[in-house]
Amino acid sequence: MKLLSGAGLVLDNMETRIMRCGSTTKMPSCSARNVFASRPSPRKGLFVRAESMTSSSVGDKPAWTGDSLLSKVVNWAIDTPPLYNTLKVFAKQMLINSAESRGVPWGRHVAEMEKRKEIEVIKSEVENPALCYPDYYLKPFHAYENGNLEWLAAFEVQPATYVMAIRTFKDKTDWSGEQCFVELRSRITNAIKSYHVRHGLPLPSIIADMGCSTGMSTTWLSEQFPDANITGLDLSPYFLAVAEWERRHRAATSPSSKRSAPITYVHGLAEQSPFADASLDLVNFNFVIHECPQATISSFIRESQRVLRPGGVLAIVDNNPKSATIQNLPPFLFTTMKSTEPWSDEYYSFDVEAAMRDAGFREVVTVETDHRHRCVMGIRT
């Protein structure tokens, strides 16, 4: 496998860590929406709030997920092809409308990216053709029939990411999509930095951004930790091609943005990563695990325990199941959202804190970074 742009100081022997066809670790093959018969009872964990919730009654997860009657009705609608196809169209149009309401040029951005044929060359450079994609990754995420394995999905990541931030701060009507993104990311980074300070830990110097997508989170981390060696890892060569193109474009157009420790992008699996044992200071998952089944989330956590050095930190950022905002979404919105996220039922029913403790992490806490999102952190023993 080729490593783009970095020295790869913390990477182990690639050939021994890669998931190859014929030797793929088996993941559950059951339906993403019919997997709850043997789910253990959830365990409670310490919950640390960064700001108070507005609802006086909040459960462990939204009523429209899991094996509740409401969830089953929603799943029936989603599993009905004519309804599903309609929901997909509405879901995409809602995103585009939200983007353009704040000046995010969704269509123009995609058109400009489609003109950059050099991105296809970069894809051939970063892609590991021997990698075998696990079943959970081959579902039609986010209204894309090929999920994350197509160009349109990669080209729409930036405006879609801005929309996520816009929806989080929709009351800030004078904020641009980029301003909303900066606020969302700043709160997350502040939670991670504060956690390090609270526990007397040095700020990380070697970081892995697992499931880095097109590198927006990786670039943000590189700005927040300017002296750190940072590797972004993702399963989509389309996403990584965009990430690497963006990195090269910044280096060419903004010389001052060059770092002493350049960002490296790697095509691989977070559950069988190429990093050496005890080699990382921070493993960060940004909005990844809601797209995965429970068995895979558990494998991410175990792999993080392997690659982190003692005293290293695992930080998992994602939607907050206890969020009053998410739990009280109108029926049309939660049905539309769930139609594009095939593993929602598993994610919202999974106890991340308990899984981290079971894997050996200590000082596990959840910080609510805004009214929709959380950051779950723990220290490798």
TrEMBL record:
Q: Which SUPFAM superfamilies match?
A: S-adenosyl-L-methionine-dependent methyltransferases (SSF53335)
List the Gene Ontology MF annotations in alphabetical order.
Answer: S-adenosylmethionine-dependent methyltransferase activity
Which Pfam families does UniProt cross-reference here? Methyltransf_11
Q: Which InterPro entries match?
A: Methyltransf_11, Methyltransf_Superfamily, SAM-dependent_MTases_sf
Which positions fall inside the Methyltransferase type domain? 209-316
Quote the protein name from its UniProt record.
Methyltransferase type 11 domain-containing protein
Question: Organism source for this protein?
Answer: Volvox reticuliferus
